[in-house]
Design brief:
The chain has a two-stranded parallel ribbon with strand order 1-2. By secondary structure, it is mainly alpha-helical. It contains five helices and two strands.
Length: 113
């Protein structure tokens, strides 16, 4: 769970920069909608949406949760659950079977070789 939380925090920082850039561009309609973050870990989503902090968490986990919650509450990001079977990023991070890679490649518009 900590690895997913660290990744979500890192992407949230990038999303905040992108959101600020879009706010500065005159050709973009205001208000800029929240940037959708797909996450395949329901525990992380529950912890981010929870109003109370978990006292068993370490300091760096609490700091990352607080940072993500602030961006979510301010409307910069929105979290959505994506099923593990439909997570297109898995083929870049895990050793998967050929069928799963072919299916994910077709979903992304790539032609498998």
């Amino acid at each position: 769970m900590e690895a997913k939380l660290i990744a979500l925090d890192t992407v949230t920082v990038e999303a905040e920069c992108l959101h600020e850039l879009l706010m500065d561009l005159p050709v973009v309609e205001k208000p800029v909608p929240a940037i959708l973050m797909n996450c395949d870990n329901q525990t992380v989503i529950i912890k981010v949406n929870s109003l109370k902090g978990n006292m068993k968490s370490s300091r760096h986990v609490k700091r990352r949760l607080k940072s993500i919650r602030e961006q979510k509450n301010s409307g910069v990001i929105a979290l959505d659950y994506v099923q593990i079977a439909k997570n297109l990023a898995d083929q870049f991070t895990k050793g998967l079977s050929r069928n799963v890679i072919d299916s994910a490649s077709r979903e992304m518009g790539l032609r498998p070789t």
